[in-house]
Amino acid sequence: MKKAQIGVNSYEIDQEQDQFLLNGQPFNFDLAQSGDGDLHFLVNHKSYQTKVLSVNKEEKTVNVKVNNTPYTVSVKDNLDLLLAKLGMESVGQSGEKDVKAPMPGLILDVLVAKGQEVKKGDHLLILEAMKMENVIKCPSDGVISELFAVKGESVEKGKILLSL
C-alpha cells in the first residue's frame, strides 16, 4: 500500500491482483505517456493532462501540474507507513547531533570511523531488525565525534549509535 497526500486530502492506493484500489474502492484508469514527464489520465470518462515538474526522492514529494493547476504530492510507501505506526517517522531528521537506533536490532556493519567527515544521506551503519537490513543514514553534514556502535552488538530502540 502507498499513501499520497495532496494538500489536506489523503489517499490510500493499493493493488489487489490486477485491480487498483483508491481508499478501498476499485479505481479504473487509463494512462498514456506523451513526452518528457507528460502523462494523460482518463478516469471515469474524464481527461487529465499531467506534467511532472520535479521529483524529490529524499523528501518523497512530486511537484505536478494537472490540467495546468500545480500540486505537490507527498508519497509514503510501506516502510514509511510502518515507521510512522511504530512512532519513528522523525528518526534521522536534520539538526540532530546523536544518531539513535530506530528499533531494536543487531549492528551488522559500521561504515564510518571517529573523526570522519560525513554528508547528509551518507550511509553510517547497517542495522538488522525484523529480518531486514536497514541502512542508517546521516541526518546532516558533520564530523563523527563519538562512535558507540560496535559490529555484532545488539542494541535497543533509542540507543545512541554515534554523535556528530
TrEMBL record:
Entry keyword annotation includes Iron: no
Gene3D superfamilies to which the protein is assigned, alphabetical: 2.40.50.100
PROSITE patterns: BIOTINYL_LIPOYL (PS50968)
UniProt feature coiled coil, ranges: none
Membrane-spanning ranges: none
Residues annotated as domain Lipoyl-binding: 88-164
Keyword tags: Biotin
Protein name: Acetyl-CoA carboxylase biotin carboxyl carrier protein subunit
Organism field: Reichenbachiella carrageenanivorans
